[in-house]
Amino acid sequence: MATQTKNDTKLNDPFDVQGAIERLADANRKAGNDYLDLYEKTVIQLTDLEVKTAEAVKLPAVSTIAKTHADVTRKVAGTYVETARELLKA
Fold it and tell me: Per residue in 47-72, pLDDT tens?
């Protein structure tokens, strides 16, 4: 039983630069995904608020413009988030 596993070696090696880089990259990916989740949620909430505010005016034209703007904003944000997530996977 004198053999060590690869994980034991990483924990005992104070100069495990590659392991540190991997842990840092994993932490950055998680932080990036957390940011994208928050961004996506915020865009949805703000566009919902925009539509509700426009509907409160009770002018059909204003409501239509706000709904269209909200849809475009959601699609652009969705594309941004999707692209950023793909980049984080690399």
Answer: 999 999 999 999 999 999 999 999 99
User: Token pair 């392991």 is at which residue?
Assistant: 19
- Contact status, residue 54 vs residue 65, Cβ threshold 8 Å: yes
The conformation of residue 68, written as its DSSP 8-state character, comes to H
Of 29, 11, 30, the residue nearest 20 (C-alpha): 11
Handedness of CA 57, 62, 64, 65 (dihedral sign): negative
Predicted structure pTM score: 0.74
- Joined together, the tokens standing for residue 71 give 């849809």
Could you state, in order of their start, the residue ranges of all structural domains in the chain?
A: 36-90
